[in-house]
C-alpha cells in the first residue's frame, strides 16, 4: 500500500486536492485537547490504520503534556500573578513551547509518512484546535480520481 | 454615463461582486501581504498592527479607568500627606502597589483575546453539513442542530453555531456583542469592555480581587483620616470641610464596595466549583435538573484543584493568529462567501446600487 509518488514540496505546489478529511475532537474526558482515534473511512486505501492512529496518539500525549496541571504550571501561574502578568509578555509559556514541538512533529510526519502517500496533515492550532485536517491529494498511481476543488494547493501546514 | 460602463443587466449580485473583484485584482498586483486581523470576521477592533484586540463597543471601560484613576488621584493628593505625617509612609506605598496591580489587571483583561475560536473554514463547514444531512431530514429549513456527547459519563449537548459554522466545543458560547465564539465563556463585562473567557478569566479575577482590596483600603484610610482630623479638637463637619475630596472618595468607595465585594465572592464560588457565570445562570448543572450528586462534569470535585486549575493552569495561546500573514488561497474565499450571501439581501444591495454604479463608472474611466 505504500506508494512513493509524492514528496512534500510537490504536494505543496503541484498536486491537485481531492478532498479534506477531518478528525474531530474527543470530549469524553472533558475540555482537554484530545483527538478521536477513530480511523476515517475515506483514508482506507491511502494509509495504514496503525500509522494514523500512532500519529493521533502521539499528538494527544503532547497536548496532555501542554495542559498538565502540576508543579511547573503552578510556578508559572504564581510568578505571573506576582509580576502583574507582565512576565507573559516577555516569556514563552510552556504551552507555547509544546505547541512548537507539535508543529515540528507534524512537519516531520508529513515529510516521512504522509506526503509520500499523497496526504498532508494540517497543524490543529491553525484550525482553532477543533480538527486535525488531512488533505487528500490526487493519487498519481491510480490516476482515476479527479480533482474536485479549484484550489491547486492546500499547503497551509508548517511554513 | 452608465451606458459607457457596458453592463446591461442590473443584477445586484454582479454589481456587488464586480467592484470587489476589481479591488482584489489591484490588491494582487500591489502584492501587499495582509495580516489575518485585517480580514477578521468578528466585531473587533485591532491596534498596533494586531497586537491589541478590543471589541467594537468598548462598553464603559473609559469610565472604569476614570473612576479608578480619579479616586486614587484624590487619595494620593489629599489623604496621603496627612496620613504619612500622622501614621506611616507605607500607606501610599501599599496604595500605589495596589493601584498599579489593579490597572495592569484591568488592561490585561480588556486587551487580551478571551479565547476566541476562529470560524470554521469552508471545507470544515461543508464536512459538518455533510455529516448532519446524512442523519437529518431533507426539509428546506433544518431544525436547530445539536449533538450529544458524553463527558465524564455525563450527557452534554453541543449546539451548532450558525455564525461560526461549527459545533461549539463544550463550555463555549457565542457572544452576540463581539460576534465571536469564546471558549469557556463566562460573561461579557461592560466595565472591562471585553468578554471574559478562558484566556483572560484569571486577569479578570485578579482585577476584581485587587480592586476589592484597593477600595477597602482607600475606604479605611479615608475613614481613619477624617477620624484623626476630628480628634484634633475639631468637629466632624469641620474635618470634612477641610478635606472635601475625602467625601468624594468615600461616596465612590462606599457604592463600589458592595458590588465589587459581592462580585469577588461570587466568582470565588464559581472558581471553587469550576463553573462559569453562563452555566450558573442557566442552571446547567443544578441539582434540580440532574439526578446525580455532582452535576458538573468539569469539576475536579476538590476546591483546591478547581481553584488551581482555573487560576494557575497553563495559559493557552491565542487561536486567531492576528498577526499572521494571509496566504493567497485564504484571501479568495472572502469573495466567494459574499457571493453566496447576496441573494437573501437583494433589498439591501438595491440601496447601494447607485453607489456601486458610480464606483464602477469611476473605475472604468480611471
From TrEMBL, chain A:
GO biological process: protein targeting to membrane
Keyword Nucleotide-binding part of the UniProt annotation: no
A cellular-component GO term for this protein: palmitoyltransferase complex
Residue ranges constituting the Golgin subfamily A member 7/ERF4 domain according to the UniProt record: 21-133
Membrane topology, as annotated: Lipid-anchor
Annotated localization: Golgi apparatus membrane
Chief location: Golgi
Ranges for region Disordered: 139-159
Compositional bias annotation for Low complexity: 142-159
Pfam families in UniProt: Erf4 (PF10256)
Keywords assigned by UniProt, alphabetized: Membrane
Name this polypeptide is given: Golgin subfamily A member 7B-like
From TrEMBL, chain B:
Example GO biological process: protein targeting to membrane
A GO CC term assigned to this protein in UniProt: Golgi apparatus
Catalysed reaction equations from the record: L-cysteinyl-[protein] + hexadecanoyl-CoA = S-hexadecanoyl-L-cysteinyl-[protein] + CoA
Residue ranges occupied by any Palmitoyltransferase DHHC domain in the UniProt entry: 157-282
Enzyme class, UniProt record, top EC level: transferase
GO function term, MF aspect, one: protein-cysteine S-palmitoyltransferase activity
Residues annotated as transmembrane: 60-78, 84-107, 203-228, 248-272
Keywords in alphabetical order: Acyltransferase, Membrane, Transferase, Transmembrane, Transmembrane helix
UniProt comment concerning the protein's domains: The DHHC domain is required for palmitoyltransferase activity.
PANTHER family assigned: PALMITOYLTRANSFERASE ZDHHC18, ZINC FINGER DHHC DOMAIN CONTAINING PROTEIN
Family: Belongs to the DHHC palmitoyltransferase family.
Protein name listed in UniProt: Palmitoyltransferase
UniProt organism field: Gymnodraco acuticeps (Antarctic dragonfish)
